[in-house]
Amino acid sequence: MAKSLLTDLSFEELENLIDGLGEPKFRAKQLWQWLNKGADFEQMSNMPKVFLDKLSQNYNAQGIEIYGEFKSRKDGTIKYLYKLSDGNLIEGVLMKYKYGNTLCVSTQVGCRMNCAFCASGLDGLIRNLTAGEILGQVIAVNARNATEKDRGVTNIVLMGSGEPLDNYANVCKFLTLVSDEKGLNISKRNISLSTCGLCDKIKQLADDGFTPTMTISLHAPNDEMRKSIMPIAKKYSIDDIVKAVKYYFEKTGRRIIFEYSMISGKNDSEECARQLAGVVKGLACHINLIPLNYVKERGLDGSNKKSVYRFMAVLEKQGVSVTVRRSMGSDIDGACGQLRRKVINNEDN
What we know:
Largest sheet: 10 strands, mixed
Number of strands: 14
Strand order of the largest sheet: 3-4-5-6-9-10-11-12-13-14
Oligomer: single chain
Order of helices and strands: EHHHEEEEEEEHEHEHEHHEHEHEH
Helix content: 25-40%
Strand content: 15-25%
């Protein structure tokens, strides 16, 4: 029987566990501090070994470990390979900016959305990550990169492998855990969540009081084109998405971000830009244009620089807030759309 993760527990749940074991209440605070430092049981030097042995019979302290690290020679981006307690592997990416360090976090092993340009869906959905496994990525990278003065991770984007809103309960608990003032205390305003557009879950997130920056993977200006790129478009239309993000904005006051991966000869024409401007008209939003990062198995080419900036000019002329996202980590397959369980295949070979 698989052991439970202590990192799945809130501080209050940890207190109840400690109380049930007949231990003094202050043990919960000690344990919580160690867990958020990325410590395993043998490193928890200020707690009795008998108590830790008792805990370890039914629990793992940390649900993941950093299994590999790959640093980009181009921009210093670091891709981390994490090993889960069941042997599965996931990836994440740390991007360093002037304003802080942003960690791209995975929410599932694999993905069932199967977008036409993305590597993460090539293996299908293996399983959801627990809240503690999602949190464990942040804890591990923060511990490895933190200094006495600064956190190792200051911003989080839920944009790694998986569709966050397809793992709704665990993602919501993660958002609560990672922003807990007694824990890592990462500001909710510094967390972004990227979704293919699961409209009912977007609304539910707002109703449940969560306020991450909502980032919509749009990638097409009309339903017909979007269906050929993203299977989820057969369930939710662009009009459905617009209604959902309007609801989210009204509830949270948070501006919406639309991501638009530019595919050569597919969605990068000036007419597409004009259609896209019509879609976002009147919305409190910003558009990130992303020159598509190459994925061998998908066989799609990204738009060239001239096409990207011509597209951007059309949007700007229509009064749309837009930028071109700088691609980071492409030389280590760590850029947007490139994350997958590829190392498993390499090991097998």
